[in-house]
Known about the structure:
Layout: E1 5-7, H1 22-31, E2 37-40, E3 47-54, H2 67-79, E4 82-86, E5 92-96, E6 102-103, H3 104-111, H4 118-192, H5 199-234, H6 246-328, H7 339-370, H8 383-407, E7 411-413, E8 416-418, H9 420-464, H10 471-505, H11 518-592, H12 599-636, H13 650-666
Amino acid sequence: MTPFGGVKEQNIRRPPKSIYTTEGGSRLKERMNDDGALIIDGSSGEFCAFGFHLKCSGRPSSIGGGLGTASAQEVARKASAFVIMVSKDGAVKLFCGEAEPIMWKEDAATAGDRGFTPDHLLERLIAQLRRTAASSTEEKSERQEVTEEKRQKLQEDLSKAESRLRVFKLQAKKAEVELDKYHEWKKQFALRGDKLPNKIQADVLHPLLVQNIKEEVEKAEKEIADILSQVSAQGITLTRDEPATGEQRLEEAKAQREVKEAEKELAAEKKETQKQKEMVETISEMPVRFQDRLAEMESRLRVFTLRARGAEVDLEKLRELKKCSASTGDPLPSEKEPPEYRAFVGKRNFEEAAESVEKDIADFLSKVSAQGITLIRNRPATGAHREEELSADRDLKGKEKELHAEKGKKQTTAGATVTEETREKLQEDLTKAESHLRVCKWKARAAEVELEKYREMKKRLELTGSSVPNEKQCEVVYPLLVQRTKEEVDKAAKEAAKIFPKALAQGIQLTFNRPAAEADNEEEVKAYEKLKEKEKELEATKKQNQELEEMLRFISSAQKTLQATCTKAQSELRIAKLRQETAELELRNFEEVKGGQPEGKSEAEHQRLRDVVKLALQQAEEKEAAFHEAVQSAVSTGMDPDLNCPVDGAQKEAEEAAERELHLLKQGGTLKGSGVP
């Protein structure tokens, strides 16, 4: 298949090489009557194809004839070929490029058989081809001039369209940057806990602006695509992305400056947002840091208390050694600094350190309380602080054992036998009771937090108009749980209070706030962690309720505004209709008495009243449209506006004035300045 036609599969065969050979000439005569054309190389006489079917666009031949004639002339023009067409009736037609076709029989009869020879035919064709070539050159030159003008026009249109596209893309980028900047503002207001002004309007307008500019970008791209498709169809080549000139260049430069300024502002807003976020995170971490600081100071207080008790045991041990030395007569080892003095100084230093820490704790709690932060006392120590407490406790236990070893394995006080095992058992019971008391206090606080959380959830459900699930059961269970945990606290406090008098009666001195055993300490940690988790849940619920209340207040305010708008629009509609009815009635009254007035004045007044009626009708239609728009706007937000809401103030006075005017006319009166009864 070629651009000029093709050969069927059955006609694809090897032809003779040349028509000038005997075989070639014979084959030419045989194939003359076959369907299709014979293609021969004119310079060599070589066969190229048999049964070649010519392609035709449907354009008719200039000398008439059928589809075959039209195909032959079209191929001759397109391929610059010499075509001989022999019809069934014996007519011969000659086609040569752009030259005029020749009808062999008709032209030969006109010129005479002797004058119409092949040489004469060749001269004629050459002359025609020269004239055609000259005419074609002129037409081509004109076409080139027209094409150049058109190309310049298309190039100008393309450059403008591309410039507009660049401007729209820059505007779209600026709109996206403005949207990002608005989101940064929202984050900043949320971090500060403030209400963003015109939030609903901005949430709609910013995305809508971005969408509109993107649609403009798509239109500009489509315009460029249309220009390029038009150029491609005409075979014109244009230059893409040419720099803009004149006003378009100024617009592009302005759009670029605006984008850069918007990006700078966005970077500044992001920096400000990050700064506020870090500040909020610092503020939110303050309670945690304060709690850790309090736990650290309380742990140091317990360590100093244990060390002071250890120094007191050392002092008591030295006194026992003095008593033993006096009774046995054995002298004590001589030292430059008496051990009793060192023990006394150590006890005093540790007691002063404990008093200083207690004062620091009191000052710290007062400052924290002034900031509205509540901390939990006696949190179990962890990590290095617990290790330090355990170390001080071990040292104290060792010193107490040494003291009792000096006093003897048994001591008698008020007729009762006290052993080291009894003292250790009482100390262990006291430490365990204190640990249990702390656990009970944290569980009681957790129950109170759970009750407060339930009340906050109930409040949120009531705000949303939902029913509280299992309300009666919860109203009983949560207060009962708080009461029972408080009873557990009282019970644990009484159990701990019983141990100290028992030890005092036996002459045993116990130490308070000793570090709990591992199992008891784990229970303390679990109770404390559970309490902190419930407090976090309570804070989250309170925050949700606060946001819900703000949203409901905003909705209520918006509904009030919409209701006021609907009421005002309805009142203005009533006033407009009253005035329309008044104008129509005034016109009718005038027309009834028109004949008694001068002709000129009567016509002018009549026209004035008709204009007043027309204006009143127009205003009534506008007010009715505004009223329906206000009602539709309220309904679209899910609100059911009250259409019987009374009006007051200036609006009510205007309604009453319109009603009085209408009533006056109906009673046969005259409006001021109208002159019409």
